Amino acid sequence: MSLALATLLYEWRRYMAAVMALALSGLLVLAMTGVFIGIGKGFTAQIERSSADIIIMQPGAKTLFGGPSGVPRRFIPQVYNHPAVDEVQPFDMAGGTFQSVRDVDPTMSQAERAKMGAPKQNFVMTQIIDTNEGAVTIPTDYSEELVDALRQPYTVAIDETTLPKLGVKLGDKALYNGQTVTVAAVLSGYPSMMQPAIVMSRDTLRRVGQADTGPRVGPLMVKLADGSQPEIVSAQINAMGKGQWKAWTRDELAQANANAMFEEGILVIIIGGCVVLGVIIGVAITWQTLRGAIMANIKEFASLRALGVSMGSLRRIVLELSFWVGCVGVVAAITLTWLIGLLASANAVIIALPPILLIIVGGGLIAIAMLSGLLSLGILRKSQPADLLR
Amino acid sequence: MNAHTKVHGAHGDFAVEAKGLVKRFKSGRGFVEVLKGVDFDARHGDLTMVMGPSGSGKSTLIAALSGLLRPEKGQVDALDVDNLWKLSPGRIDKFRLDHCGFIFQGFNLFPALTALQQVETVLKYQGLSKDRARKRATLALEEVGLGPRLHQKPSSLSGGEKQRVAIARALAKDPKILFADEPTSALDGENGQVVIRLLRRAASDHGAAVICVTHDPRLEAWADRVIHIEDGVIVSDERRVPDPNAVLASHH
Ligand SMILES: Nc1ncnc2c1ncn2[C@@H]1O[C@H](COP(=O)(O)OP(=O)(O)O)[C@@H](O)[C@H]1O
Ligand SMILES: [Mg+2]
Question: Which ligand ends up closest to the CA of B54?
């Protein structure tokens, strides 16, 4: 085992401050970015988790919700002209008021009624699936029972984390835009973002009078007979459209949706601020910790110098030590963020940690540690072997 | 090649030869001269003892001889090097790495490393392979009687054992010149005796030029040569017949 690694393991308490500083810097950036990515993913989950291989929108659309994304209804049969296309359904969304209802027993006293609480009314976002088997609009993680439940008219499904907010539970009746619906299923993993969301079938949406029936529909969700090469088919569909639409593969759209988040000035400022803060905290504390650690071993370093070990070799020991401190910091940061993520998801906040984010932040933390190591090299000059001769 | 000092000298050949060493330190507005034109030499196979009261310049002398502290004047020839102080700092480091061992009053062992690792570390910087470094380090530690304690960290070693690890670390390189500065003054009589005997062996058995600085007159018994220095000047230089079985009686 190398001197640097042995020292880190043996004197781990001394390095805890640096490791914790790195972990907190990492947590700051990972959690912030993760929350924003999570929110973005929440908005687009209905499409990103669907079985749509290709999504067709207006040529000018940059993301699912950025700019005009709906298309004329006549595009649907045109898209079916491509031989590889299996199913085309328009993405539809609506919104309305959702009110829990209370069965009030007329014999109850006023006090008992007060204890039950007033019925709640919320504005909700309504997402739509088709209930025919394997429909393109059904998210791939929906169970068959869930789809069966929604197949009944006037039923809705609500994520478990949204239920309390809406004041309902499984089997409850509620008023959606004044019409009675039943909570027939509970979702998990679809926490609501800004606004509570409910899911219903296109049929139910039609019955409550909110389905798109006009000449314009939402983005088209396209399922291919063979979904293994969506890029090729997407290019062909684009050629077919002669510029009147633009086809995206699901991955392209997901990427564009995620990237769009980071074109929001305020997000860039918040995350940028976290990065700057994280770097300052990380470097300052890691630097001081390493300096202290070198000073604590300065006589030992000096004795190596006396025995002829060059200054360059001592510098390499310090840099190796910094590297290992960085590695431990990365592990601590990811563990901490993961724990916070568990806590957050128990409270309906998704912290998304895509591998690329982990790699970037991990690399950043190691760079911070190495930079701190470079800054603390100066202190090695104090390892004067002549000082050992007294 | 220089005319006097040699790398692979037989017992009695010169290993170090210094002429006219002057070393000054800043002190207030002026300077104090700590070495006042010292001529010094040491031979292969000799345990050369440098004695003198505290502050007389003993440590400064070996710092100048070993390339650790540049003297203002004078020349040091060591082994095959003519005028050590003409070399670049990197070359002086290399010279020490190849040829010099050091033992200090403090032990200066890394708290995280086992006895074996302390010794191996230096050998690896000398360019030895992992296996050879391990073998050499084990041998050196066995030679100082620490065979059973190879895997102990300094925290579980006694002061005498720590100093023996430091000696093993210096001897494992098989140095041609071994500098020791007050190697026994942090130890009790018994451990001090073990240490001085090891230095005696390094000279007799390995042919190293051992230069041992001390203010403890009882160590004289093991020396081939005793040099007294006072106030930066060598006042006496005598050869004597060492007694390898001398006893360092009481605690000092
Ligand atoms: N780096 C230094 N700066 C100033 N004075 C020093 C320094 N090193 C040693 N001295 C002085 O030089 C004198 C000789 O020191 P030293 O060689 O350590 O003596 P010894 O080892 O014989 O006790 C002492 O008076 C000491 O104070
Ligand atoms: Mg001294």
Answer: 1
